[in-house]
Structures are given as structure tokens and as C-alpha cells.
Design goal:
The protein has 648 residues and is an alpha/beta fold. The chain is built from 21 helices and 26 strands. The strands form 7 sheets. Strands 1, 2, 3, 4, 8, 13 and 14 form a 7-stranded parallel beta sheet that branches. Strands 17, 18, 19, 20, 23 and 26 form a 6-stranded antiparallel beta sheet that branches. A hairpin with a 7-residue loop joins strand 17 and strand 18. Helix 13 runs antiparallel to helix 17, helix 14 packs antiparallel against helix 15 and helix 17 packs antiparallel against helix 18.
Length: 648
């Protein structure tokens, strides 16, 4: 059934360096949405790609001793490889160095100039190279970039400007009249109240201080700045041309959804709509600003040593478990978290136990009791109705959740169906029925197994956008042809008389302690041979004094310290905290000898939730400073400060 077209995009990835797993979340999220729409019967076009121009790229290339094109070719290849490694089904991968894109952008720039929407002037203000943004004096925060907190440079140069301010009222009206344009609701309020209603400023759209960009074809001193270049990819990828738009563009534009990070929402809900209004083109239907994936509670940073790469994680766990974790762990409107401990925990509990065990034992029981044949469900009981209704309701729930991009919640509903199937096994005790020679019990057993197999079929189909390989493995074991979305309208489409195939374990349980030990050993090898470039300082989002007050910092004295067995990284401390004492585990063994720390006064986080590290309980955290070489330096306090003293 063809439900019409659906055009969905990711933001294009900046080719500064290889993306970490937090950057890769977006492509998996977008792919899951695209796959689900295809499953429902939509004609889907999914676009992703790379943003390859700008001063920052020029500087990175110079530092690497290669041309900008050589530099972006390498990074773009890495980004595309990660997209493929994560089994994403993009229909087009655009690079902003593609010839057709550059020509289309030049024509867009000229059109806007000819109609008076772009004008030449002079810019004098503060420039942030990493963000590629200009700021006025009043926009700076403590003299630094308000977006990233980095240093800015005073800049004065001739530039072309896009008269964005003239579209302010039109944009406000569009957002107010299209309440679903910006998702989630909190992001819409942020854009309106913080950026639009206070007044939209005209936008600098060319530069003369560097050359790595698309030239302005009627003024060769200037290159077209990132906003028109990068944002236009969503239409140039479809074959947009100012004079003669392609049939593909006419078919798929406007986009049904732009999936982007919350940090670039302003560009996609203010700059981009204003450009489209100036071009006379329709606006995208929805822009979803997703949250960030953090390592524990921190942004990923090479200098902190907490970067995880998608390909490394796939080599460790497999593609589908990585996809599952990324999609299930990210809340709808809050930042998600990733640690090796939680990945392994979710793998074992959700995938190996809940899903994998359900499929294997159901297939095995069908093979054991009926030689693998699916028999007709003729001996019904009231208890069956709840399983059937749960399966049917799951389809409706997942549909509604996916329509509003609540992907984590949708995936949880599917796992809830698996949990319900497992509960149904406990309720019906098929292993007891299987021992009986009573014909009624045999008929009942056949019915129970049919219902379980049918429930698993629902799970396999619904889970296909999230874990496509796992879905195929389950359906192959079921040996069924009822694999399309429409077959989920009625519970009971599994073909009677079919013989299931031999069961295959979907997920082998992980020995958490061994895997964490192996990961740590590999990390230690990297630390011993650091090759990282110096990283720029990135501040976390601002907090209030109330947020800070939630953290209980105290002075503690190290009474004893010893290495944690099976770990090269961890030290176990006994701390006099002035409150009876506590044990804290800290990953600083590679920088300190235990005997050198005894008697030192240190700063501890006293109200941190206890965790186990390599099987040893830790009740708090020692405060350290990240050093430029990647090491950590323990904060040593004045010996006169009493144990338990509050630090504020």
C-alpha cells in the first residue's frame, strides 16, 4: 500500500574529524524513522551527507599538511563508512563539494542578490571559528562565544548579508500557524522567545578571509559562507535548480522532517526558513531537535578520554545491539547517556534475556513437541485474549509514538510485548502441557505455541526498523511469508502447517567483567601512547546556583589506597569524610602510586549515587583536573581544612 511520499534528512556532518558515537546517533535515529515509514507503505527518500567548507577545514588541512579537498575526502569517507557500518538506508549521500551542489548554491546566491535579499556591506564584530559564527559585543557571554564558550576574535571585513530581518513577521506567523513545525514543544518556545521575538538580525553570508568555500561567481574575492552552502543541501540533493527544478525535487519537497541536534536548531528554524521564503519555496513540515548522547554525564571529548566510536562498538557487540542501545537509551527531550557498563547491562537484560530467550525457547518447544510444525490454535482460553490484545495495541501505540519521533518509547512498547509473551509462557506452563498425554492438553499446547509464535511475528515485524538483521533472523526461524505491515491488522496470520526452522541464539550473554577488563586494557594502551591533538575547551550548558547546590562537595582525607584487582586503571580509596568514612574507586592508577596519596586531603563528591566498578562498590567521586596531555591530576586541598568540611 502506497501512502504517499516521505522525505527525511539528517543534518550533514561536518568533516572536521571522525565522528564519535554521539554524532552517529542521529543517522541511526533518522534511519529508524525512515525504515518505519517504508514499513508502513510510504515512498521514502532519506538524505544524509557531509558539510565540507569553511575556515576551520582550511586550518585543519594546513595543520595536517594536505589540501582542504584531500582532508575532507578522507573524513567524508570515514563518515560514510560509519553510516554503512550502522546499516543505515540513506537514498542519497550529499557532499557539499559535489559539483552539482556548488553550481546550485551559486545560482541560489545570485538569485537572492538580484532580487535584493542579499546586499554588500562591511562586518565588524567577534568571530568564533569553531562555530563559524559572528557575534556582536552584547551577544557575547563573558567575552566568549555564547554558543560554545570558546575564545572569539575581533574581525572586520567586507561581506555580503542576507536580509533575514525582513522575513521575521512571516516566520513568526508560520510557526504560530503550524504548531508541529518545531519539535519538541520546549524547543519551539526557546526559538520564539529567545531568538525570533527579540529581533532577527541580518545574516553574514560571505567571507573574504579564507578561500575554502564556494566562490561567489560575480565577485571572486568572496566565498559563500556556511549558511547558504550547507543548509541548501536539503534541496540541492533532490536536484533543485533556481531555473529548472528536477522532477525529483517537485516530488519530494517540502521535506517531511529534518532530524537535527538541538544545538543547531536555530539555523534550521530561523535561517533556513527565511532563505526558503526568499526563494519562494515551501518550508519543511517538521524540524525535530533531538538531545545529545553523553558519556555518563559528560560530553564526549578526546582530551577526557571518553570518546566511543561506532565502528569500535559494532566490532565489540554487533550492529543491531548498538542500534538498539542508541535508540532505546535516548529520552525524547533530555540528553541520553552511554557507558560500557550500561551497554552491556541492556544487552544482557533486554536482548539476550527478554528477546533472545523468548524466541529460542518458543522455537525449541515447537520443535520438541510438534517436530517444528505450527498447528492450528483450536483450544482457546481467556488468558489468550490479553496476549492478542497486547500485540494489536502495540502496533497502534508504536504508530502514534513514531509519528511524534518518540523512538525510545516506541522501542520500549515492542520490548513490552516480548515481556508479555514471556509472562504468557509462565502463565500457561507449556512444559507441563508437553508432558501430558491428554489430547485436550496437546491441543492446548498447540494453541499456546501458536499464540507465542504469532506474538513473536509481531515483534519481528515491528522491530525491523530498529534492528533489521535481528528481525530477519527471527522471521527466518519462523519460516513465514506474513512479514509485511498490513499482516499486523489481524492476530492469526501465521500459516498453519508451516515447519519452523532450527532455532538460532540471537544474542549470546556477555561476561561483563571480562569485556570491561578487555576494554580497559585497550584504553590503557592508548593512554600509554597518546597521539591526540590539543583539544579546544568546550563548556557544558550553563547551570543555575540551584543546580550547583545539588552537588555536595566535601573535604576528605585518604586513609588507605590500593589497586583494584583485574584493573590497571582503578584505585580503591578509604576516605575519612568526617561522617564515618567511605570507600571511593577512582580511575587514576596510571598517574599515581597508592603509597604517594595516603594522608592527602582531597575534594570528594559526597552525594553521588553508589556504583560498582569491576565489582568494587564506590560511594562518591574524587575531583580531578583534566590535563592537556590527557592525564588527570588529583585536586589536593590545604591540610588545615577539616575532614567533612563543605566546599562551596
Amino acid at each position: 500500500m502506497n501512502r504517499g511520499k516521505y522525505y527525511i534528512t539528517t543534518a550533514i556532518a561536518y568533516t572536521s574529524r571522525k565522528p564519535h558515537i554521539g554524532n552517529s546517533y542521529e543517522i541511526v535515529l533518522t534511519d529508524a524513522i525512515a525504515r518505519y515509514k517504508r514499513l508502513q507503505g510510504y515512498d521514502v527518500f532519506m538524505c544524509t551527507g557531509t558539510d565540507e567548507h569553511g575556515q576551520k577545514i582550511e586550518e585543519y588541512a594546513e595543520k595536517a599538511g594536505v589540501s582542504p579537498k584531500e582532508y575532507v575526502d578522507k573524513v567524508a569517507s570515514e563518515i560514510k563508512n560509519i553510516c554503512d557500518t550502522l546499516n543505515t538506508t540513506y537514498d542519497h549521500f550529499i557532499r557539499t563539494t559535489d559539483d552539482y551542489h556548488e553550481k546550485a548554491v551559486q545560482k541560489i546566491f545570485r538569485k537572492l542578490y538580484n532580487q535584493g535579499d542579499i546586499y554588500k556591506s562591511e562586518y565588524e564584530g567577534w568571530y568564533c571559528t569553531p562555530c563559524e559564527s559572528f557575534w556582536t559585543e552584547t551577544q557575547l557571554k563573558d567575552g566568549k562565544c555564547p554558543d560554545c564558550g570558546r575564545e572569539v576574535k575581533k574581525t572586520k571585513e567586507e561581506a555580503y548579508f542576507f536580509a533575514m530581518s525582513k522575513y521575521q513577521k512571516q516566520l513568526e506567523e508560520y510557526i504560530e500557524n503550524n504548531p508541529n513545525f518545531i519539535y519538541p514543544e520546549s524547543r519551539k518556545k526557546e526559538m520564539l522567545n529567545n531568538f525570533i521575538k527579540p529581533g532577527i538580525q541580518d545574516l553574514c553570508v560571505s567571507r573574504t578571509s579564507f578561500k575554502w568555500g564556494i566562490p561567489v561567481d560575480f565577485d571572486d574575492k568572496h566565498v559563500i559562507y556556511v549558511w547558504i552552502d550547507a543548509l541548501s543541501n536539503y534541496i540541492t540533493a533532490l536536484g533543485y535548480d533556481v531555473d529548472n527544478p528536477s522532477e525529483q525535487y517537485k516530488k519530494y519537497w517540502p521535506a517531511d522532517a529534518h532530524i537535527i541536534g538541538k544545538d543547531i536548531l536555530r539555523f534550521h528554524t530561523i535561517y533556513w526558513p527565511c532563505m526558503l521564503m526568499a526563494l519562494g519555496e515551501p518550508l519543511p513540515k517538521q524540524v525535530f531537535g533531538h538531545p545529545w548522547l553523553l558519556f555518563g554525564t559528560d560530553k564526549m571529548s578526546k582530551s577526557r578520554g571518553n570518546v566511543i566510536y561506532a565502528d569500535d562498538l559494532v566490532n565489540l557487540l554487533g550492529v543491531d545491539p548498538v542500534r538498539y542501545y542508541l535508540l532505546s537509551e535516548m529520552p525524547y527531550a533530555q540528553d541520553g547517556s552511554i557507558t560500557y557498563e550500561t551497554i552491556i547491562e541492556r544487552y544482557n537484560s533486554d536482548l539476550a534475556n527478554t528477546l533472545g530467550n523468548l524466541v529460542k525457547r518458543t522455537i525449541d518447544m515447537t520443535s520438541k513437541y510438534f517436530n517444528g510444525e505450527i498447528l492450528p490454535p483450536v483450544a482457546h482460553a481467556t488468558i489468550d485474549n490479553e496476549l492478542k490484545s497486547t500485540a494489536l495495541e502495540t502496533v497502534n501505540k508504536v504508530d502514534k509514538l513514531m509519528d511524534t519521533f518518540r523512538v525510545s518509547d516506541a522501542l520500549n512498547e515492542i520490548l513490552n510485548l516480548a515481556r508479555r509473551c514471556n509472562k504468557y509462557i509462565d502463565e500457561t506452563t507449556p512444559w507441563v502441557l508437553g508432558k501430558s498425554e491428554n489430547e485436550d492438553d496437546r491441543l492446548r499446547l498447540a494453541t499456546v505455541l501458536y499464540n507465542l509464535l504469532e506474538g513473536i511475528r509481531y515483534i519481528a515485524i515491528l522491530i525491523s526498523p530498529f534492528m533489521p538483521d535481528t528481525s530477519q533472523k527471527i522471521l527466518q526461524q519462523l519460516n513465514t511469508s506474513a512479514t509485511d505491515y498490513d499482516s499486523l491488522e489481524t492476530f492469526g496470520k501465521l500459516e498453519v502447517g508451516t515447519v519452523v526452522n532450527k532455532s538460532v541464539a540471537l544474542f549470546q550473554r556477555i561476561d561483563a567483567e571480562k569485556m570491561l577488563s578487555d576494554i580497559e586494557a585497550k584504553a590503557n594502551e592508548t593512554i600509554e601512547n597518546p597521539q591526540e591533538e590539543k583539544q579546544e575547551i568546550v563548556l557544558n550548558p550553563e547551570i543555575t546556583i540551584d543546580d550547583f547546590a545539588k552537588v555536595e562537595l566535601r573535604c576528605g582525607k585518604i586513609l588507605s589506597c590500593e589497586k583494584v584487582k583485574k584493573s590497571k586503571k582503578l584505585l580503591c580509596f578509604q576516605i575519612d569524610d568526617g561522617m564515618g568514612g567511605r570507600q571511593i574507586v577512582s580511575g587514576i592508577a596510571q598517574w599515581y602510586k597508592p603509597e604517594d596519596l595516603i594522608g592527602k586531603k582531597v575534594q570528594i563528591v559526597a552525594n553521588l549515587k553508589p556504583v560498582k566498578l569491576c565489582g568494587v562498590e564506590s560511594n562518591g567521586m574524587l575531583c580531578c583536573a583534566d590535563m592537556p596531555d590527557g592525564s588527570a591530576k588529583l585536586l589536593i586541598l590545604d591540610d588545615s581544612i577539616p575532614c567533612g568540611a563543605k566546599i562551596r
